[in-house]
Amino acid sequence: MSYQKFAFPVPHDNCDCVLCARKGLTEPVEDAPMCFTEYKVVKIDSEGVNLVVHDLTEAELDEFEAQNAKHAQDWTTPIKQSNWWKTCSRIIKMLLRDRDAGPFKQPVDPEALKIPDYFTYIKHPMDLGTIEKKLNACEYKNPMEFVNDVRTVFRNCYIYNSQKSVVLLQAEELSRKFEEQLAQLASLPESLIRSVPAVGRT
Length: 202
Fold this sequence. Notes:
Layout: H1 18-22, E1 42-47, E2 50-55, H2 58-67, H3 69-72, H4 83-97, H5 110-113, H6 118-121, H7 128-136, H8 143-160, H9 166-185, H10 190-193
Antiparallel strand pairs: 1-2
Helix pairs in contact: 4-7, 8-9
């Protein structure tokens, strides 16, 4: 079983899109911090020089769970009791308390803000308040759904607002704090990292 440490995305060469030019992002970052990385329990057999991977039978999986209760506990744990949900809950509360969170706590109201073209450019609106509600309603089935929604809040801001606007500077600062939290999680002790496997049997 191996884990890749979380790394920040880098700009794409010869790309002048609004995101690459500002933040080095063009697509949602799918690579999870290793404390969020799901894994699948398999059986590996050596056949000559080749390694052959087999799915475990139900009986073999039951035996594994009995022998490795610490690793298997999250498979049957309700979402709100899982380590990843508790971590996401702490992160969203931290973001909502931040002094720069004001513009991102609720959905953008184009009429109130007098920006009628907002939805012309922003096809997937998202805000921190909605994310907290989705998390508390257990709509996220894994932590990366949560992570991608948070990043969408900031990407939307980068796309729509001018580079020197106050709200974009707030988004950059809040995004930095969010990514730092994920990077810190990626350096958790392996014993704790291994206690956050897949949401269910895979």
